[in-house]
């Protein structure tokens, strides 16, 4: 098992163009790949209930099977367990899957009932970013999630730590946020697809400062995929609860974010910088 450590950022509509013009990335070489992914679960959603995600990914030359756990994080950050291996296809490699500890705990009957549930199709443009502290894979994903007749847009940036200090992900994100409208996102493509398929979103509970931030971020993820303004209100309420719990600096950022959500075009560079500041200062939580 490997640990996938990354920072996920949702971009405004103008975000990809702004990203390409950012001086920290503009001079770096890139590679672009088309990725088609099919996610599997039982009809009852037993993998989702166990906070697991199983997919087959087609890239230009390979078919790769991946199982991920939920892990810990918040404010866009995540640290998840991941098993990944190349397969011959066309379907799942059930024999190796059965040997993995998370699947073994679900029982043998689950394997025989796995079925395709939803899919994602997107282009991935990759930059490699290095400094004295870390090496990061910077991946811009543009495409869509499809679950039955429902679709949702993929427009996100993932900063994945390949070597070095985790803080480098937030360092780079804060630099990018000076000119790129972005925000932390806590909802994986798998979780978004499952919500799209079910036609409903489930929010994490609040309580601690970190939990309120996580709730606000997931509510904004739901807003992006559904367009339902009630999620904006939910995010705003969570941020006000966060503001009431914390010190002056955290409280000010949370209040400013809550106030920004009254605006039509709330996803600005300032919004992203303040949200990333909260992610840096607050502890991690268990992710769904």
From TrEMBL:
Domain CYTH: 2-200
Name listed for the protein in its UniProt record: Inorganic triphosphatase YgiF
Gene3D superfamilies: Hypothetical Protein Pfu-838710-001
UniProt cross-references to InterPro entries, sorted A to Z: CYTH-like_dom_sf (IPR033469), CYTH_domain (IPR023577), YgiF (IPR039013)
GO MF terms held by the record: inorganic triphosphate phosphatase activity; metal ion binding
């Amino acid at each position: 098992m490997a640990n996938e450590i990354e920072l996920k950022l949702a971009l405004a509509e103008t975000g990809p163009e702004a990203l390409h013009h950012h001086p920290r990335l503009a001079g770096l070489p890139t590679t672009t790949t088309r990725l088609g992914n099919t996610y599997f679960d039982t009809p009852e959603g037993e993998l989702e209930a166990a906070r697991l995600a199983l997919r087959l990914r087609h890239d230009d030359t390979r078919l790769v099977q991946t199982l991920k756990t939920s892990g810990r994080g918040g404010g866009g950050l995540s640290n998840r367990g991941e098993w990944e291996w190349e397969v011959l296809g066309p379907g799942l490699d059930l024999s190796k899957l059965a040997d993995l500890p998370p699947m073994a705990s679900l029982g043998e009957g689950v394997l025989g009932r796995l079925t395709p549930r939803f899919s994602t199709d997107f282009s991935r443009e990759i930059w490699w970013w290095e400094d004295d502290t870390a090496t990061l894979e910077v991946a811009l994903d543009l495409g869509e999630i499809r679950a039955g007749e429902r679709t949702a847009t993929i427009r996100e940036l993932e900063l994945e730590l390949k070597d070095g200090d985790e803080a480098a992900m937030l360092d780079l994100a804060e630099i990018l946020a000076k000119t790129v409208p972005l925000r932390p996102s806590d909802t994986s493509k798998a979780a978004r697809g499952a919500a799209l398929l079910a036609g409903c979103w489930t929010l994490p509970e609040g309580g601690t400062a970190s939990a309120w931030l996580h709730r606000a971020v997931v509510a904004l993820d739901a807003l992006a995929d559904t367009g339902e303004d009630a999620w904006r209100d939910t995010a705003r309420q969570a941020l006000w609860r966060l503001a009431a719990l914390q010190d002056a600096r955290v409280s000010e950022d949370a209040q400013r974010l809550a106030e920004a959500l009254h605006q039509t075009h709330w996803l600005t560079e300032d919004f992203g910088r303040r949200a990333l500041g909260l992610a840096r200062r607050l502890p991690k939580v268990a992710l769904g």
